[in-house]
Amino acid sequence: MTSIEERLAALEQEVRLQRDHIEIRQLIASYGPLVDTSDRLERARNLAELWTEDGVYDIGGLGAYEGREAIAGAFETRHFSQVPEGICHVMGLPYVTVAGDEAVALNYSCVFQHEGEDRFFPWRISANRWDLVRRKARWMIRRRTNRLMTGDPDALAMLRHIDEMVP
Hints:
By secondary structure, the chain is an alpha+beta fold. The chain has six helices and seven strands, in the order H-H-E-E-H-H-E-E-E-E-E-H-H. Strand 6 (119-135) and strand 7 form a beta hairpin. It is globular.
């Protein structure tokens, strides 16, 4: 039989792991509202704060951006004009694995764009890999890789990492 101290330590470890999962899911869920309100550089900089200072956002078909300022600037060309027209990033529930101060999450995302008076259409459907790190007691994105679900071999290879993640 294990001692009370051992049981308490195991319980604390399990609670920490569950908190990590919740914090990571909250981080990923916050992306949608932050990006959907990024209609100017100041707002995009708030979004870029989700990344580490040297973080990377590799957006399939649109390029890879390194560093918060580059990530914020990536939205200037097209995205800023889409916000007032109506755009909605829906983040699928991620599958998360945590190892100490590092984590990996896989999920899907769907971006809907407004068209006409009351119609929305799916504009981009992507697979995502989030490489995360805990810095100063906060989870941050080290790298997000996004690939369109067009049968792209890179998207499929990224999703196949689930084989290594599921116990």
